[in-house]
Sequence to fold (273 residues):
Amino acid sequence: MNKINAACIIIGDEVLNGKINDTNSRYFAQFCFRLGIKLREIITIGDDEEQIMTTLRNLKEKYQFIITTGGIGSTHDDITYKCVAKSFNLPCMINEQCKLRMQEKSNPEGRLSPQALSDYYKMATLPSGPTVKNYYLYDDLWVPVCSLNQQVFIFPGIPQLFERLLSGLTPIVKSLYHLGEKDIEYVRYFIKTSMTESQISHNLKLLQEDALDVSSEIKIGSYPHYGKGFNTISILGEKKDDKYLLELMKRAEVEFEGQQLSTEEEDEVSNTR
Fold:
C-alpha cells in the first residue's frame, strides 16, 4: 500500500488580508481524501519571495506531493514561478509551447501594447530544466500545470481554473504515485448528537484510545454547530477497517444518544452560516 503525504501552499496577500476567501485548500483536501493521499499541511503565505522559498524548501524534505496555488499572473506580485524555480536551483525562461498556445487562443499581439504584451508573457515564463514537466490538460486552456521533480505542482489561484486543472490531473497523479484500486482508501461516518462537547468529551477520548489499538489512522473528532442544537461526531479511517469503523459508529450512537448523519447532510450544515 502506498502512503503518499501531501501539502498545500496557498500564496497571496489577498487571502491574508481577507479580500478573497480561500476555497482551493478545501477542494484539494477533498481531492486527497478521495485518492487516499494523506494531506498533512495547508499553509497560507503572502507574495514574498523569501517566505515562498523557505516554505517550499521545508516542505520538500517531508512530503512527496506538494501543490502551490496563486501568484502566477502578469503583475509585479506574481512571483510563484520564479520562487519555485529558485528553490530547485533552476532558471525561469519563456516556454515556447506555452507562448504558442497563448498566441493561438487569445491573439495577444493583435490586442496588447508592447508593455502589456511583455507583462502577458510573464505567465509563459516558466521554470526550466530536466526535472520540469508541463501538463497541458485541456485543449481550450493555454495554462499548464507545471511540475518540478514530480513533486511540486504549480496551479493558478482562480478557483474555477484550479478545480478544473486539479481534476484533470487525477490520472497523472495516480500514475506518478502508483495509486490504484489496492491502495489506501478512506471512509468517514458522522453521528449527530444533542449532547454537548463537555458531556461527550470523556467517552470520546475512550473511543479514540480503543480505536488506536486497531489503527493509528482512525481519527475521531467532534464538531459543534453553534445555534443548531446539536454536535457532530466524525469517525474516519481506512476502508480496510470499515467493519470496525461501523462498530464504532454503532457504539457512538448508543453512548451519545445520536443518529447517523449522511456526508451530504453534514456538509450542508457545516457550510451554512
Q: What stands out?
A: The chain has a mean pLDDT of 92. The radius of gyration is 22 Å. The domain at 186-270 is CATH 3.30.70 (Alpha-Beta Plaits).
